[in-house]
Write a structure and sequence with these properties.
The chain is 87% helix and 0% strand. By secondary structure, it is mainly α.
Amino acid sequence: MSAGCNSCASDRTTPVEDTVYRKILWFALIVNGAMFLVEIIAGALGQSLALTADAMDFFSDAANYAITLIVLGLSLSVRSKAALFKGICMGLVGLYVLYSSVSHIIEGTVPHAEVMGLIGFLALITNVVVAVLLYRHRDGDANRQSIWICSRNDAIANIAVMMAGAGVWVSQTGWPDIFIGLGIAGLGLWGAGQIIRKSLKEMEANHLHK
């Protein structure tokens, strides 16, 4: 099926589906905003790069949900541009974490493993619930796909944070935290690349069909 046909198919969303999807997005926005505050504080108190990286990811996701709520129901062209913007934001978050990792390596920071494990588990529960709710809405245009990719990446990152906490506890060094923080950054950059590529294809297809 051509890109144009895929675009047409993704526009055929019923009002009922949009209403349910909108409610899920509002729920996701609220819980992601709350978890950003929890993790950014825990990351600072626990001196954890992985938690800080995950907090920045929660902030990026909250912004993404807000943008999606604004453009939901608008033209495919507008939604594609919104997805492109979100992809760029995800990429910037990944680059920020890469930058932050340098100071942790230089200072030899050893985070608090118990804080990482507890907050990582709380974040995992939050993201699994959101991911389950969004699973049936994962297909369609780049904007919808970007939301699913964010939720999927978050759940993976939370498991990784818990593993990093266990690694810090066993090794009594900050390297597991640094490795996982860098891994989260890499996952974010990979997801950003997926979203940017799809949104650019949709924008190109939309331009050709005008």
